[in-house]
């Protein structure tokens, strides 16, 4: 686990930019059911999973499908952070989140526009199949 943390070459903010760009081109699957369907159809490029997922069976299914289809997994610490990242939040007029819906899993189907953040994430996931943020 220590080597995996040293290997990561991108931050949560860069991942947030990549997810936002993916969402703009309708290339983001959110929730377990939609993510499982996307990975099973070999359409997923990157899986973002909540590290503290309470149901171990869900985690096993996602990990097995990702291993079968060679989809890298990025773990985030909180389902609230993941929910905010994938756009499941109402925003106040000043831009801060007012109500965040929890999210357990998200899969990127389409990368969206080319950016420095995408290059950093692509470089990071090419080095390792599981990354903990």
From TrEMBL:
Keyword check for Ribosomal protein: yes
Record Pfam families: Ribosomal_L7Ae
One function term, GO molecular function aspect: structural constituent of ribosome
Keywords associated with the record: Ribonucleoprotein, Ribosomal protein
Organism classification: Eukaryota, Metazoa, Ecdysozoa, Arthropoda, Hexapoda
Family: Belongs to the eukaryotic ribosomal protein eS12 family.
Name recorded for this polypeptide: 40S ribosomal protein S12
Organism, scientific name: Lygus hesperus
GO cellular component: ribonucleoprotein complex; ribosome
